[in-house]
TrEMBL record:
This is FAD-dependent monooxygenase. Pfam families: FAD_binding_3. The keyword Oxidoreductase applies. GO terms for molecular function: monooxygenase activity. The lineage of its organism: Bacteria, Pseudomonadati, Pseudomonadota, Betaproteobacteria, Burkholderiales. Keywords: FAD, Flavoprotein, Monooxygenase, Oxidoreductase. Residues 7-345 form the FAD-binding domain. Signal peptide: none annotated. Its cofactor is FAD.
């Protein structure tokens, strides 16, 4: 007999699964979350928390704990063949674009513990040692077979099942989604170390040379870092037999790192794949279950978290507010194109920094260290670089759920951030749900429409900073629960607003 234990069954309790559960629970949707592992991860796999994730985390009061428990990296340095070539301040690049113009280092093991604790505080416990054995869709629900460590099996009924179960996703395999792509030939090592060096100064360092790349990610103001580097020559044939001593010569010689302790060491290969579908019926894929790529730029975990938040509010709209199931098609329409672009971009960057050959070596060690500081002084170039890395450039302009434009802002864009009198225009976004912003004067018909549809309306007196950010004076911006612009209207018109709701089956 099936047990109905939640409207949504989440398989996998990594960051994306935990974030999905947290957002659904906050939006009033019952969830059940299971994981085959006996406990949270104990190694700090993903490190970087990007600015866009911190912005979204304000909705559940997660930003402050991440910042308090993490470490903000304010600059990155470029080395070439053991010589320091440039230092670029992230704060100078991102200032005025986001309240978080830096890279936050918050190791994944601590990140998962924070999320799981918050979920438990909300009354939802991760069910460990519980594996998905299979599922089928029938009569408007999913019947999932779950296996427990003691050999017991059960059938769980849910309205939807979400695969947040990583690169070897059982949910993806069951729905038959292809996972095209490949595996890079390079072998990488990762080591969390303590020691002394000019490169252990609390900043990010990248060392380029003729045959290798080495990145140093600060994990403290001084003396602690993660090293990520390539393994070359015959050693790469059997990486499972390697130790840190086998691969550390370059870090010790080029960056003058004196290692006093190695806290963790591992080797791995990097894959690049995107699932050919993110949804089949009542089953969805999120995070590494539907896209994996190189670690260039620290995008992986943040992309999975973005997937989860995008899907959460849509599931809530269907399950709680009666929106049509077709609304859920917009999840794949918005997130899969981004995943494909991201894999393509990181693939190009990865191939460039690891390419062999005389020309590639000259470009990597001679041209790049000279060009990067010059580009950092060009406002357009440095803004694009920061927006791309921070994921604040991500938009859904071409997806069907978004419409209109006002100023430089289009439906599907992230709302531009503007500092205001010690605060910012993102403060109301900490309240999950639909809302509207007007920068300038609010027309009565717009105010009446918001009141009739119980849409929170926030009005800001006009200032030049809004125009500089791309906002239009007196325009109407309807914001989705995930804080992206749903509809931008230069001339507020209730008929236009109602038409948007009808076209998308929404009832606010």
């Amino acid at each position: 007999m099936a047990q109905g234990q939640g409207q949504v069954l989440i398989v996998g309790a990594g960051p994306s699964g935990l974030v999905l559960a947290l957002w659904l629970q906050a939006l009033g949707v019952e969830v059940r979350i299971v994981d085959a592992a006996s406990g949270p991860g104990t190694t700090s796999r993903a490190l970087a928390v990007q600015a866009r994730t911190l912005e979204l985390y304000r909705q559940l009061d997660l930003t402050a704990p991440v910042l308090d428990g993490g470490y903000a990296v304010g600059a990155f340095n470029i080395w070439a063949e053991g010589e320091h070539r440039a230092r670029i301040e992230l704060g100078a690049i991102g200032a005025g674009l986001t309240p978080y113009p830096f890279l936050t280092i918050f190791p994944q093991d601590r990140h998962e513990r924070l999320l799981e604790t918050r979920l438990l505080d909300a009354g939802v416990r991760v069910e460990r040692n519980c594996s998905l054995l299979g599922f089928e869709e029938t009569r408007g629900e999913v019947l999932a077979r779950l296996g427990h460590a003691d050999g017991r099996e059960e059938v769980c009924a849910a309205r939807y099942i979400i695969g947040c179960d990583g690169a070897r996703s059982s949910v993806r395999n069951i729905i038959g989604a292809g996972f095209p792509g490949g595996t890079y030939r390079q072998v990488f090592y990762v080591a969390d170390i303590e020691g002394e060096s000019p490169a252990l100064n609390g900043e990010l360092h990248i060392d380029l040379d003729e045959s290798d790349i080495l990145a140093v990610f600060a994990m403290a103001p001084r003396g602690r870092a993660r090293l990520v580097g390539t393994v070359r020559d015959e050693r790469a044939e059997h990486p499972e037999n390697l130790s840190f001593a086998d691969v550390s010569a370059r870090a010790i010689d080029n960056l003058m790192i004196s290692v006093s302790r190695v806290n963790w060491f591992s080797t791995y290969r990097v894959h690049h794949r995107v699932a050919d579908r993110f949804r089949l019926g009542r089953a969805f894929l999120v995070g590494d279950a539907c896209h994996i790529h190189s670690p260039a730029g620290g995008q992986g975990m943040n992309t999975g978290i973005g997937d989860a938040i995008n899907l959460a509010w849509k599931l809530a709209a269907v399950l709680r507010d009666g929106a049509p199931d077709s609304l859920l098609d917009s999840y794949e329409a918005e997130r899969r194109p981004f995943a494909r672009r991201l894999v393509h971009t990181t693939d190009r960057a990865f191939n460039f920094i690891t390419a062999d050959g005389a020309v590639a070596e000259v470009v990597r060690t001679g041209v790049v260290p000279r060009i990067m500081p010059m580009m950092a002084r060009v406002p357009v170039a440095r803004e694009y670089f920061f927006r791309t890395i921070s994921q604040t450039v991500l938009h859904y302009r071409h997806a069907p759920l978004n419409d209109g434009s006002a100023g430089k802002v289009h439906g599907g864009d992230r709302l531009p951030w503007v500092a205001i009198n010690g605060g910012d225009n993102f403060e109301p976004l900490a309240r999950p749900g639909w809302q509207a912003h007007v920068y300038g004067e609010v027309r009565p018909e717009a105010a009446n429409w918001c009141a009739a549809h119980r849409v929170h309306l926030r009005q800001y007196p006009w200032r030049d900073g809004f125009r500089a950010a791309g906002l239009a004076r007196d325009a109407f911006y309807l914001l989705r629960p995930d804080t992206y612009v749903a509809l931008a209207a230069g001339t507020p018109d209730p008929l236009l607003f109602d038409g948007y709701l009808r076209a998308n089956g929404l009832a606010l």
